[in-house]
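Note to self: keep these together.
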Amino acid sequence: MHHYQNKEIKILGDGTKSVRKVYIKGKKGHKSISKYKHGKCLYTAKKNLNHNEIKLIKNGKFIPGLFKDCLNKSKKM
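Structure:
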């Protein structure tokens, strides 16, 4: 079974950090975006990847706007 994972970290000047993750295991996968400020997680939004996105990622294609639907913030308590 093939696994794929990728993590992108972007640090902004005002003490915030944005982490975007993609994880694929077999035929299923998910994407998530987390926002941190001063070391504490403000929110995490996680969504399943659809079949077309998984196929493109496995072929190494760039998908513009992959995380746009993850911007609906779900608070982490």
